[in-house]
Amino acid sequence: MPSSAQALLLAAALAVGCAHEPAPAPYPRPFRVIAHRGASAYAPENTLPAFFRALELGAREVELDVQLSRDDVLVLFHDKTLEGKTGRAGRVRDLTADELREVEVGSWFDATHPEVTARYAGTRLATLDDIFRSFGAAFYYHVEIKAPEPRIPELVLGEIAAFELRERVTITSFEREQLDRVRALDADIPITWILRGDSPGDIDAAARARFDGVAVEASKLTPELVARARALGLEIRAHRVRDDADMEHAIRVGSNGMTTDWPDRLVRRVLEDMAGGPPLR
Q1: Which residue among 107, 110, 134, 233 is the one 20 to 30 A from 183 at the CA level?
Q2: Does residue 127 sit in helix, strand or coil?
Q3: d(Cα 13, Cα 19) in Å, to the nearest integer?
Q4: What is the pLDDT of residues 239-267, one digit of tens each?
């Protein structure tokens, strides 16, 4: 159970990060505190422990990556190949969902995050079904399509419908083709295009495609890009937030929030502003 301090963070995140609640000035509405692959600085990314940790730290929005198994099940994993983080050769697409559920990712996290006192050896990969079944409406989800298979948009929409989470999901991707498939299947579900660069033309293209938002690398965000997106009716948030300086910059230029490995830092930053205290340094 969360402590009283964690409960305060949870309440603040509900007020600030929820898609349907207004954020306090000077933050734009909505302002999104999105735990990147769960609380991925504190637990193995895209796993159940990472999402439980995000909940404890006050995040009410999470980002997660989906790929397709050999038997067409949506599995959470970021990288193109399994080897770097699991020691298992091949791609997600090469294994069945049952085989992937036996793939261990916690030892990689323990080795690369010695500053985290909790140990996660033995933590396995998860499916989108596992996450939706475990957390339901506790989160607002940003589901990122990471792989090229044309069936993924249809399957993601099917999972969202099965768990009645339509009002609590935005679909995202770097891959414009996948997002176009989503929009062809569903005229209204929120879509955010994650941009590789900072071209104003891409922001214009997102509006023409009837997307709802764009995500720009934090260091490339400018007031001009934010103003352009807003003028076209788009949300604009930051991705690749590498440190506190990136977080501060994304806030300063007026973004609609950001994905961050450290959601607690962003929640604390917003709480300090609400209380009139100094910004996080």
Answers
A1: 134
A2: strand
A3: 11
A4: 999 999 999 999 999 999 999 999 999 99
